Amino acid sequence: MNEPLDGSALSQYFLLPTDASEAPVTGIWAERRRLASIMRTVIEHLTVADTPESELREAADTLQHLAAQLGAHPRRRKRDDIADTATPMDKHALIDFSPLIGLSNPISPPLELTLDGNTLRGRLRFGTAYEGPPGCAHGGCIAAVFDELLGYAQSLTSLPGMTGTLTIRYRVPTPLHTELHCEARVQRISGRKIFCVGRLYAGETLCAEADGVFLASR
Ligand SMILES: CCCCCCCCCCCCCCCC(=O)SCCNC(=O)CCNC(=O)[C@H](O)C(C)(C)COP(=O)(O)OP(=O)(O)OC[C@H]1O[C@@H](n2cnc3c(N)ncnc32)[C@H](O)[C@@H]1OP(=O)(O)O
């Protein structure tokens, strides 16, 4: 884990670009993302604001009504997400509901990813809903970020797989409400095993690092 995350010898494994399409998202997907973004704000206010009981009751009543309204519609089929969103190369069309990077999923921080050579880079900010120790991110949420980050990096190889083992070393507490950046890359591939490494920083401070072994499907 001490070598730089450049991975230049591994370019052969990367088949697809990962950067999200810059094409503007419109229509139903734009509204899904907007709704998710507002829900994130509601979650943040719920966890930090000293809201009077009457307003909490009113908000809950409003959301109960909204939940019933949204729940009245039939469930979508997965293929519709892909067909409805953008081109097949727009990978965000496939991952808009991811719990970590999905812009249409309010539980995602969201983690923003870009591919820089063979290094996958991410940016995120943990709100209060992700608190573990006071003022710091929950370790399980950090692990989830690494699972997504390393998992996405290995998904860019010719043989993507599922997480087999994910090992996290928490070096210092990770602050909330702070711009964090992270990076990951495929370190090596051995048979069906894809070994990945990653790091998470707050500024120059290394907060946590991860090793992951992913198993390509048979
Ligand atoms: C245009 C389209 C683009 C699409 C682009 C989409 C991008 C979107 C990116 C999203 C990124 C999300 C990333 C989230 C990723 C998850 O969260 S996946 C969910 C969490 N993981 C799981 O649920 C996995 C559950 N476990 C399993 O299914 C199975 O145990 C596994 C991991 C598949 C392995 O089972 P298996 O294939 O039967 O393994 P087996 O044949 O026994 O062993 C094979 C080898 O692997 C080793 N091994 C087995 N298990 C493990 C293990 N757990 N750890 C380490 N080594 C192991 C064995 O020792 C053996 O080694 P050798 O003897 O060959 O040296």
TrEMBL record:
Record-level Gene Ontology MF annotations: thiolester hydrolase activity
Transmembrane feature ranges: none
InterPro entries the record matches: HotDog_dom_sf, THEM4/THEM5_acyl-CoA_thioest, Thioestr_dom
Reactions catalysed, as given in the entry: hexadecanoyl-CoA + H2O = hexadecanoate + CoA + H(+); dodecanoyl-CoA + H2O = dodecanoate + CoA + H(+); (9Z)-octadecenoyl-CoA + H2O = (9Z)-octadecenoate + CoA + H(+); decanoyl-CoA + H2O = decanoate + CoA + H(+)
Enzyme Commission number, as recorded: 3.1.2.2
Record's bilayer topology term: Peripheral membrane protein
Domain Thioesterase, chain residue ranges per copy: 135-205
CC per GO annotation: cytoplasm; membrane
Keywords assigned: Apoptosis, Cell membrane, Cell projection, Cytoplasm, Fatty acid metabolism, Hydrolase, Lipid metabolism, Membrane, Transit peptide
Primary site of residence: membrane
GO BP term, pick one: fatty acid metabolic process
Highest taxon listed in the record's lineage: Bacteria
Location(s), subcellular: Cell projection, Ruffle membrane; Cytoplasm; Membrane
CDD domains: PaaI_thioesterase (cd03443)
Membership in a protein family: Belongs to the THEM4/THEM5 thioesterase family.
Name this protein carries in UniProt: Acyl-coenzyme A thioesterase THEM4
Source species: Steroidobacter denitrificans
Lineage: Bacteria, Pseudomonadati, Pseudomonadota, Gammaproteobacteria, Steroidobacterales
